[in-house]
Amino acid sequence: MNKLSYFDSGAEKTLFAILACFVAIFPVMNMIFPEGSLLHVSSFQLNVWGKYLCYAILAVSLNFLWGYTGLLCLGQCLFFALGGYAFGMYLMLMIGELGAYKSVLPDFMVFLGYNELPTHWKPFYSPTFAIFAAMWVPGLVAFLFGLLAFRSRIKGVYFSILTQALTYAAALLFFRNDFTFGGNNGFTDFKFILGTNINDPAAARGLFWASGAFLIGVYLLIAWLLKSKFGLVQRAIRDSENRVRFSGYSTTHYKVFIFVLSAMIAGLAGALYVPQAGIINPSEMWPTKGLDIVVWVAVGGRGSKFGPIIGAVLINLLKSFTTRAYPESWLIILGFVFLFVVLFMPNGVMGLWEQIKAYLAKKKSKQVTASA
Amino acid sequence: MSHHPLYKDTDLVLSIESVTKSFDGFKAINDLNFYLGEGELRTIIGPNGAGKSTFMDLITGRTRPDEGTLKYHQDDGHDLDLTKLREYEINRLGIARKFQTPSIYQHHSVYDNIVLSLGHNRSVLHALFYKESKPDREAIEEVLETIRLQDMRHHQAGLLSHGQKQWLEIGMLLAQKPRILLVDEPAAGMSDEETERTGELLLSLEGKHSIMVVEHDMEFIRQIARKVTVLHQGHVLKEGKFLEVANDAKVKEVYLGRQKHE
């Protein structure tokens, strides 16, 4: 095989180094510089950027499906939210008797008249169990759905629509009060995480580091997969699935594996997101959220390893600025950005440099022919 | 059911008997009987709609017959029913297919296209931890030499000429070391020189693999023809040597003659 490296280009290597430094140093600035110092990073800022890191992981997980396998999944937000709910259950139980009703039960259960914790909630006192659930629950959903869809040879736009339908159905289910997950209010008012007060700067730093480390880990894992023969098969499925099948590969096995892995990554990103956001409710799995992720990936650059990270951070920075400055125009601006990228920047921000170089080369060759 | 007179049972790799397949009432394949011998180079011709592609689809598991049997005779003497197997399982038995339009991995290098076609374990786990071995490298070199693409190994496959793409796909089949090669219109869209070289390539494979070639180009068929099977309306109209077939009145009427008038 051609020698492939973990990085596609020097630019990618540089970006990766910047990311690693940012992840390492940002929380340190929260720790060592006193409040009021110009270099101080507030816990609030840490939480905001920690959330962006989680979004970046989510975008990377979609790119793994869409950019490298050709599976445009519109339900990535569902896996993210499922992971978030799983870890949220642990956080709800850690509130203990500090809730509004002074009961060991989560407030919404008291409100709905529960006397006892439902059985499926009990294992979530263990943070380890919750973290694993944040992976295997989305993984299981992806496995069952993927097996059925891929065995029936559902692909292209039909696959996208079905993933969106699944997401919509799940969101409606989570909106119901009797589904035992807090209905449309979801989970909030968390107090403790792993014995630490969730508002303690140490918690914010720990969560930020965990999110950053996971993003870097996922990046390296995917880079390793892509340079293995597995990655070759994966991209071959994207380009000519028929040929792969007629070369003796069960493309169903490969696609299910990829789908499950991607769902588990998204789930864990959701688990890291919820304590930093302080809330999880069914709006996180609303179908429009799934489309947002598609926009992040497209803007950053589909099929490039770093593109989704850039796309997720850029769009969310833009959103945070716009929703404060021009709250009414955010969706219109997002729509224009997406249109512009689709029409004029097919490879997104990551492809911009190549695009400019190609444009200049073309212009130059034209000048040469004109002067000749 | 009588076997084909030319072959003893043990010499056969494929036996297809009384196969029928209809699509919405149209009989694409109608009571077809066909036998392929070990190491044979067989050419299949027939006008458009004669059922040639459906025939290949049936052998490779892409479609299932309504009636009849498709048997693959393994090396060890055991027969396998192809109608019960999936595409990838049939391929793993050693039945490789080349499609009409070149079907290659456009974004991969020529070399990686062949790597992906090697006939070893094709499970997910194996692919994750696969390390290229020396025998693998040698097998790839051999294929590259056969299809004359040694110098293009690092080129992106999508940038090859049409003829080179066709060869690459044949090379991808050869990398699997298949027992049966199904080749659908290999000369389509090729220049005269490329066509001739493709013919030479196929002739050089005779005896090493059992080969079925579907073709339209009469010059090309004349070059490679050993035994020719003429399909018409999903049925074998005539089978025999090229000249025998070419001079047959019925064949002329349905195929050759009509082509002349067009």
Percent of residues of chain B in helical segments?
A: 25-40%
Q: In whole angstroms, how far apart are the ends of chain B?
A: 39 Å
**Number of domains in the coordinates of chain B?**
2
Instruction: Write the element-wise H/E pattern of chain A from the N-terminal end onward.
Output: HHHHHHEEEHHHEHHHH
Q: N- to C-terminal separation of chain A?
A: 43 Å
Major sheet of chain A: order of its strands? 1-4
Q: Describe the sheet with the most strands of chain A.
A: 2 strands, antiparallel
Task: Provide keyphrases for this structure.
heterodimer; A: 372 residues; mainly alpha; two-stranded antiparallel sheet; two-stranded antiparallel ribbon; 69% helix; B: 262 residues; alpha/beta; Rossmann fold; six-stranded mixed sheet; four-stranded antiparallel sheet; 10 helices; 10 strands; 35% helix; disordered N terminus
Describe this structure in words.
- With 372 residues, chain A is mostly helical.
- Helices cover 69% and strands 2% of the residues of chain A.
- In chain A, a hairpin with a 2-residue loop joins strand 2 (192-193) and strand 3.
- Chain A has a two-stranded antiparallel sheet.
- Chain A has one domain (10-371).
- Chain A has helices at 10-32, 43-69, 76-94, 107-111, 127-151, 156-175, 201-227, 229-245, 251-277, 287-300, 307-325, 330-344, 352-371, and strands spanning 187-188, 192-193, 196-197, 279-280.
- The relative contact order of chain A is 0.17.
- In chain A, helix 1 packs antiparallel against helix 7, helix 7 packs antiparallel against helix 9 and helix 10 packs across helix 11.
- Chain A is built from 13 helices and 4 strands.
- Chain B is an alpha/beta fold.
- Chain B folds into 2 domains: 1-94 and 178-262, P-loop containing nucleotide triphosphate hydrolases (Rossmann fold, 3-Layer(aba) Sandwich); 104-177, no CATH class.
- In chain B, 35% of the residues lie in helices and 25% in strands.
- Chain B has helices spanning 52-60, 87-93, 110-115, 124-128, 134-146, 162-175, 192-205, 218-224, 242-246, 249-261; strands at residues 12-23, 26-37, 41-45, 67-73, 79-81, 95-98, 180-184, 210-214, 227-232, 235-241.
- A 6-stranded mixed beta sheet of chain B has the order 6-7-8-3-9-10, sandwiched between helices. A 4-stranded antiparallel beta sheet of chain B has the order 2-1-4-5, with helices on one face.
- In chain B, helix 7 (192-205) links the parallel strand 7 (180-184) and strand 8 (210-214).
- In chain B, helix 5 packs antiparallel against helix 6 (162-175).
- Chain B is globular, with a radius of gyration of 19 Å.
- The relative contact order of chain B is 0.17.
- Chain A binds chain B through residues 1-2, 225, 228-230, 232-233, 235-236, 239-240, 242-251, 253-254, 257, and chain B through 60, 86-88, 91-92, 96-97, 99, 103-109, 111-112, 115-117, 119, 122-124, 127-130, 132, 154, 172, 176.
